[in-house]
Sequence to fold (123 residues):
Amino acid sequence: QAQLVESGGGSVQPGESLRLSCAASKYYYMGWFHQAPGKEREGVAAMTTGGGVSYYADSVKGRFTISQDKATNTLFLQMSSLKPEDTGTYYCAATSRPFLIKDILRPQSFDVWGQGTQVTVSS
Fold:
């Protein structure tokens, strides 16, 4: 049974926005990962849930914002100015095991995953 449950995906036109949500338990680190069709999964945004420090892939800086609601243990990804290359499956991930912070956007740093939610950006 998945411990992380994503929601909020959908189909939008370029330039539009979407907000993804991830219902979770408490973890020290959480993130969002993107897998485009035929490509490897890659990190787009992650954060330390205690200190609230966030990290972003260069491709989404200024367009995506990761945030959390500590009261409900919910992680969000606000995606704006969406581009066709943002199309794919978005996965929420979490972990409480230690790793080097420089690796926070690497899928290998996380050990709990949601089932993914589909985002399609097309005109």
